[in-house]
Amino acid sequence: MKVDIWLDIRCPNCYIGKRRFESALAQFEHKDDIKLHWHSFELSVNLKNMPGKSVYEYLAELKGKSLEWSHQIYKTVAASASEIGLEYNFDRTVIANSFDAHRLFQHARTKNLASEALERLYYAYFTEGLDISDHPTLVRIGADLGFPEQEVADILSSGRYSGEVRSDEARAESVVISGVPFFLMNNLQGMSGSQSTEIYLQTLREAWAHFDKQRQGLLPESDDDDACTIYGFC
């Protein structure tokens, strides 16, 4: 059964959601029959780098809220991350465009290292406080994944994988995805947000039951082009 997952590297709930989903998948009875397809999604396509501005200030301005409110939001998110062994250092986070990081992820996807690349990029952004738009930083991250430094540098200095990022985002738009993490199971069952491991596991089982009926010819097979039917319209 196919599971499509859209994530942004700047999204703290995506990192949490990824870990919780993978924990659920490890407990799933049919985990060996699940094919994961990771996809790029930018929450702020036109985001400009903001050196010197804290994530607290950025979120407060973006939402029109107080700085105290922003601090509390991030404190809550950091606590949720800590529960599953993730360390978020929001005081060090660098507000930066994630497009080039997504291009590196797309390269890793061609090498069957999508999940590993996401883990390394998330760790760089949320734990180490690195600038994920900085090419030398991305070259080092690529090297950590086993890619030759010159190979990554050449990719970043060109437009390679730009089309793949935009294609993922176009697909997201076609199924009316406005936020991430987003999980699309068997091209039919959509699920948004960082859910508990238990809910992910339950949803996997429900989607599998439907998929199994399709395999037995009891239901028509789903079609990628009809994925938007999870919302009842196209």
Structure, explained:
With 234 residues, the chain is an alpha+beta fold. The protein has a domain at 48-174: Glutaredoxin. The chain has nine helices and four strands, in the order βαβαααααααββα. Strands 2-1-3-4 form a four-stranded mixed sheet, sandwiched between helices. α1 (12-27) crosses α9 (197-215), α2 (55-63) packs across α3 (67-83) and α4 packs antiparallel against α5 (114-127). The longest helix is centred in the C-terminal third of the chain and has 19 residues, at 197-215. 36% of the residues are buried. The model is unreliable at 224-234 (pLDDT under 50).
Instruction: Report the strand count.
Output: 4
Task: Look up the CATH topology of one domain.
Answer: Glutaredoxin
Percentage of residues in helical conformation? 40-55%
Corresponding CATH superfamily of one domain: Glutaredoxin
CATH architecture group name of one domain: 3-Layer(aba) Sandwich
Task: Give the overall pLDDT as a whole number.
Answer: 91
Rough outline: globular
User: How large, in whole angstroms, is the Cα Rg?
Assistant: 18 Å
Report the span from N to C terminus: 23 Å
Give the percentage of residues in beta strands. Answer: 5-15%
CATH class of one domain: Alpha Beta
pLDDT below 50 for ≥5 consecutive residues: which ranges? 224-234
Order of helices and strands: EHEHHHHHHHEEH
Count of DSSP H/I helices:
9
Largest sheet: 4 strands, mixed
Main structural class: alpha+beta
Strand order of the largest sheet: 2-1-3-4
